[in-house]
Design goal:
homotetramer; alpha+beta; Chorismate synthase, AroC fold; 4-stranded antiparallel beta sheet; 8 helices
Chain lengths: 332, 332, 332, 332
């Protein structure tokens, strides 16, 4: 359940206020240079406490390598990485235990795990788990280092200028959402499969595992629903498959077509808004007004691009490794 | 690659103009009444040639049961089903072989499979493969027969009245896209997992395997990106987890919360438009003007709701079976 | 549950006395020549009614190709194959329904599937299901056609001369068991993984899925338990990894070492012996003496070598495809 | 590749002389009491340095819980466990780097991983990795705590008295092999599936992942090959499926039949014998006489029973969780 990938496989674990979060990466080819300096730049982008509008909780996020690296290179064995949780304030959550926070997983976790869930700061449901994913993404990027993967915020609170959107949040003392766009270039033709292993299926699977994602669209996306076919179709203009337009977003029939891969992700406003809210107190069985304690992001979308890139890299690295086998042409 | 599901598993096969399409369904519990009459109503909804705006190719789509049913009941063994292709006109495709159709998989299939692909009518990439999925969906619906699953067209060519939207296509002699909404009621609380096996991840994975889907959004979807947190959060109002609003679309932390499951899918206009188009002739290496032969839908979205329901049922039946194990509570 | 393989995947279905048995093969590379003439020689070896001591039930076993082949070549899409059951006599089994046959799955199938199982001739548990495996094996052999795979009977009823062993069965009017040995040559170094994907793990997994297999051993096998380390170790004598002896059976640390792969399989005597037996009549709840009706093998081991070869080829073809990805060396 | 299980899933990682070994256990139900005291008894049984004939390398093997436990109970989230490697002497291995040790994975690992493998003490191939498996096994045993699982040595160096067998090793100054038998009682009827998910397939898969295992047999095993059918068949004598004899070893058609589960495993003599051996020096390309440095077991079979129990528990716990779903009976 906490595993993704067929050949390049990531297993995540950990809790927001437990001892650590981490990841085991299996199926990584041998011989890649992997150390702390490879991982830190992406980890830094994910961190709170740096950008305006992100949580003041600031973790060091130093990756502790536990296996799979020898003399600075991957060995082909699983790479176990963990990150200690140091800057935790669990008491914030214990006092609020009786009121499941709206928008969060508190209520469903309690029902599903029979009250045994670690409820502190969302426990295993926390976006802090994405730390391991970002680290895995940095390693995955090495496998497909001939490609560029770039995700960026294209809208915050309805504003194309992120600063303006964030200012709305600050003014309203409320959390806001946003939209991320991701572009991948230099992909080979032929990654993915028709139907269940389509590039869209695999990417959407991975992207919807990011907390707060509410929508995913490829190429022209939802606006395609309002176009004519003659308008939407991308004319192929050369033997490399270059197309005149790119409404397809770089994918046909589930398979990369060599053009730029384009997709967008909708991120809802953080559930932990500073505003007063209502929810059920399940001890007293009454609806109460309360406000959320703890340190939180006004806009989680600001920290999301590097997570989007990481999951994209994980999916594409896996497809890239899978594709090696079909490169072997059979003649008989 | 042509397999989906963990416990309730579907394996699809076939080609548009080959001998047949079909599905093997593994992991279906024993004792369900399954026969032709169970499957025909959904198969009928998927068919072309009935609704205005759909392809004149009309297949009988009689399910041929090859295994897994005994005395009218499922046995617990795999159910093999196939559907003969009778109404094929392969010659339409052979003549067009040199020009990969824009929006279709012709170009990428040729590159990926080295020219060995069955190119007739899209071959294995054809939406005709969804026949098996619809049949599997009808069986999956039996497993979760306490739930209602209803998908319907909410927009065609930008019009909320599907007839008006289709008229646009007829007037323009061009294909058009649309938006499907799916609602599921009476789901138990607790299906799905945080992260990779979130309900959103699994549904999006399945839904993006439907040809022509360009976007998937849950609950408030892309519009969530423009809301404040205090506005988006759904206040819990009773011990069953009922929420005042349903921006979450029935899912928190990847897990069903007992409220209505809501999602929408964007369908692009059919790539096979009657309009003249340009594409590369890879024999002559020149860009040519051509128009697509064959019998096609003006709006594939019209036939999509039953396919959306089928994949939804397949995902939810699987999650439902998976959840049985966690119902066993441990005390020690 | 009826699926095996990671990249080269086989899905089996069918029942002994239902309409058909078959297999869907997914992940087969495009461009292989596959037709009836490829499959018939191995299917012929599996058949009853030809060799002395095998069942008089004689099926034609003509493979019906339903998908995945175009112009005589694999397309990269799933290959669906069916075999019709023609020569069935279900009435033999209905009369015996109340007495679960010792050694067979009748009792457990009834408990597990709540009475819904197809009980005729063992239903889905029948060795007739291996028809699809043998067909898949013939295709798998094409992927690794640089290797030779040869399984043969090395012992029947304790006799190294199979004829002498079979004569024992005929004389005793009782079924007998046997031992099969399989040798694979020209394997590359490096297939398999340490631990769970060791060549031994994967082969044993596949081989124990053959009905009647009671033991699997590699290289020196059980006799290794009585050897000294200095005696058992295989000295490496050249840079290709050639070893002086081959007690390891061609595998070290779960990985092929380039020497001959050697393993043996113990096959129990057919449960359907002509002798009178005792078992419970679950209608009357009394232990009864009865004898088994139907047409059966005196020694199933005689038909097993081609099945052993098929599963071996399926495992090795999958590992061979998997290994292509690690052949890509990374330098950075 | 380093993952086993469908619902109860274990992911192992680590190296013999790296920083640590460990395991992530996913899919463990919430609410089980799990702490150090649960794990230590089995870990103690696996340790070297205690029993005569086992390696003098003595690790503390204290499990470090990193996630998945809260207030002493499992939470339903992945359980990450680490064991530090403290008592390492890597220099023993560096000096011997040029001579791949016979019987070990040195040669194949070097070929497969292109020289990037951690070669110290077998690296990732080391039996030290079974520490994590033993810990996972102790947790798995809790899930099936109504069953008893007992593995014991039944033969060392051909002697049924283990002390006598070990004395042979001491006298010969050579390593020796042995046979382990495992018995499981109180299993429910109905675990496992026909064919690929047979109990034999899954157990053999798991058991052959233990380093040094050369053979696995169930019930009468290899001796079944020399029996008549009338002799081998186990007559069912009551409605619970109790059989008069148990040649089947508790499994019919791949499914547990409610009788005692019985199987045996052949363990080869440790490859690291104190005796002088020959192997290729791949630097000089000459065959050299050498003896193995480092601290080693004279008989690894002595430490194997608890590992066999652990893998058995892991397989059975997974099957037990899977079976919960089929317990749900459908009537329509």
């Amino acid at each position: 359940m906490n595993t993704f990938g067929r050949l390049f496989r990531v297993h995540i674990f950990g809790e927001s206020h437990g001892e650590s979060v981490g990841v085991v990466i299996d199926g990584c080819p041998a011989g890649l240079s992997v150390d702390e300096t490879l991982l830190l730049p992406d980890l830094e982008r994910r961190k709170g406490g740096i950008q305006k509008g992100t949580t003041p909780r600031k973790e060091e996020d130093v990756p502790l390598f536990k296996s799979g690296i020898f003399n600075g290179k991957t060995t082909g064995a699983p790479i176990a990485l963990f990150f200690e949780n140091k800057n935790t304030r669990s008491e914030d959550y214990t006092t609020q235990r009786n009121i499941p926070r709206p928008g969060h997983a508190d209520f469903v976790a309690n029902k599903k795990f029979g009250g045994y869930e670690d409820y502190r700061g969302g426990g295993h449901f926390s976006a802090r788990l994405t730390t391991g994913l970002v680290a895995a993404g940095s390693i995955a990027k090495k496998i497909i280092n001939h490609c560029s993967i770039e995700a960026h915020v294209i809208e915050i609170a309805g504003e194309s200028d992120p600063d303006k959107g964030l200012q709305k949040a600050i003014d309203a003392k409320d959390s806001v959402g946003g939209i991320i766009e991701c572009l991948v270039n230099n992909l080979p033709i032929g990654l993915g499969e028709p139907f269940f292993d389509s590039v869209e299926s695999l990417l959407a699977h991975a992207l919807f595992s990011i907390p707060a994602v509410k929508g995913v669209e490829f190429g022209s996306g939802f606006s395609a629903a309002r176009m004519f076919g003659s308008e939407h179709n991308d004319a192929i203009v050369d033997a490399n498959g270059t197309t005149k337009s790119n409404h397809a977003g770089g994918i046909n029939g589930g398979i990369t077509n060599g053009n730029e891969l384009v997709f967008r992700i909708a991120i809802k406003p953080a559930s932990s808004t500073p505003k007063q809210q209502e929810s059920l107190n399940w001890e007293t069985n009454t609806v109460e007004t309360f406000s959320i304690k703890g340190r939180h992001d006004l806009c989680v979308a600001l920290r999301a691009p590097v997570i989007v890139e990481a999951l994209t890299a994980i999916v594409l690295a896996d497809l890239f490794l899978l594709e090696q086998q079909t490169q072997h042409r059979y003649t008989d």
